[in-house]
Amino acid sequence: MILKRLKEGKPIRLLVLKARQMGFSTFFELLGYWFCSFRKNRNGLIVAHRKDAVANLFRKIKIAYKNVPDALRPQHKISNREELYFSMPDGSPGGLESRIIIQSAENENLGISETLHFIHCSEVDVWSEMGYDPEKRLGVLRQCLPELPGTFECLESTGRGASYFKKEWDDEESLYDKIFVSWCAVDKYRININKNEYFELIDNDDNLDNIYGNEVEEYESVKNQLIFWYEYREESEELSHEIMCRLKWRRHYIKHKCNSDLALFKREYPTTPQDAFMTWGDSLFNIRKLNNMKKYVEKPKYFKFEEKYIHLIETTRNSEIYNKLAFEYSNKKQHLQIFKFPQRNKKYIMFVDSGEGLKDSDYSAFTIFEYNDKYIEEVCSFNDRITPYKYAFIIYCIAVLYNKAFIVKYFNILMKS
What we know:
This protein is an alpha/beta fold. Helices cover 32% and strands 19% of the residues. Residues 316-326 have low confidence and may be disordered.
């Protein structure tokens, strides 16, 4: 991918989602070293997720510097724990005048006052856990990177559920080339077993005593990954054996390295991108069952709803096609999500929560459910940071469309909305 973009004369923008301990940080540090040590007037920035990781990343670069052939080792003027500056030691002309800087994500002003040509951000999805807003940090940092051919930016991380990284990954209009590397791509993640050591695969994921999940489904996922990374022949005996060796390693790691926590294993060693972004952490509800239920949830349709549609509300509500007239379909994510259009003779209830509509304040949101004596089903949702006046207007419009849905409003006495 990198060579392809270089040959095309385009900027290189990568989003790398990966499993643990795969050597990506080392690879990108060395790529940054190559990028800056063979070119004049180049500035590279490497961003660690923690301050104590800065020294470790810089150590890898210094090892590379010391071990390249003498003919390829440029003169340097500064070498400390945060910067390697390629220049003539006495300040005379003839040096590269390039440098590599390493900082931690806690720096609010990453890259400010610099013109950067290479950026690698490590474990981006962990930044928010450290108390840093990745969206704000990267928003500042990107201003330092020109949109020129050959400039490089890579955001790399393991997944952390619903996060900034997931938002960028799911964005169909993202400028990043997305690369997913599962644990199956690493040779060492296997335990060799004989055929007489094969075990029966578990296909029941509902049993809470089963710590390994649905191994029948996992077998197929591992199979697809191995074919992709190693070019095994499908349905070959060699491939079948390798899958069992991988699943043996998976069982071992779930039980002994992840304390029998399947969600933790999937987050740290995802087989698919969906595994990496699984919901995790403490919850009143069983996390595994919630994640399994996601498989059966229909994807919502996204719509725009604006004031220009108000004239359609009452005039078309009794029409057979009113539910299509009042909404403008969008092929990208919008604030209004519809799982099921309103239907005649159905009963609906809307639960409403209001924000103040101020910058950095809570979002305003509502959810509509269709209900009867036997079931309740979510059919529509809305989420946006919006003024109370406009929000009230949207609530009215959508409630009318859903057969004058009964509205239940959460009221916070501290809120003005």
